[in-house]
Write a structure and sequence with these properties.
Elements lengths: L10 E4 L3 E8 L2 E8 L3 E2 L16 E7 L1 E6 L2 E6 L3 E4 L4 E4 L4 E7 H20 L3
Antiparallel strand pairs: 1-2, 2-3, 3-10, 4-9, 5-8, 5-10, 6-7, 6-9
């Protein structure tokens, strides 16, 4: 049975705002993410349908606080909370937050591609 841990999964993203470690486990990807600064993820989702995440994530907050926003509601989770975040969300994350999330790899890959392009565009613009 495949497994992964934060300590042995290589760093996939290391930016001023976030460190992300990602491992594929069969048809799911586990994400270990630590947010170094307050972050509104919305700008990174530009170009996705509705400029929002199109994945469902099952997650657990190991420290800090994350708020998922949808057009009709918000849900906030803190250390020790498990959550399901359906598509259409735009997260707000407090500095010091760490989460472990499971997403279907086939759903996550196109989202990560858009995020990657937006990071490149923001970096090229001096962001």
């Amino acid at each position: 049975m495949p497994s992964a841990s934060r300590s042995t999964t290589p760093v996939g993203i290391d930016m001023d705002v976030v460190e992300g470690r990602y491992a594929e486990l069969d048809d799911h990807t586990v994400s270990f993410e630590t947010f170094k600064q307050d972050l509104d993820v919305t700008p990174y989702f530009r170009g996705l349908p509705g400029d929002a995440c199109t994945c469902t994530h099952l997650g657990y907050v190991t420290s800090g606080q994350i708020t998922f926003r949808w057009p009709d509601r918000e849900e906030t989770y803190v250390e020790g909370d498990a959550y399901v975040a359906p598509p259409g969300h735009r997260p707000l994350i407090v500095a010091g937050t760490s989460v472990v999330e499971f997403s279907r790899t086939a759903e996550l890959q196109p989202v990560m591609a858009v995020i990657g392009r937006n990071i490149e565009a923001m970096s090229g613009a001096g962001a």
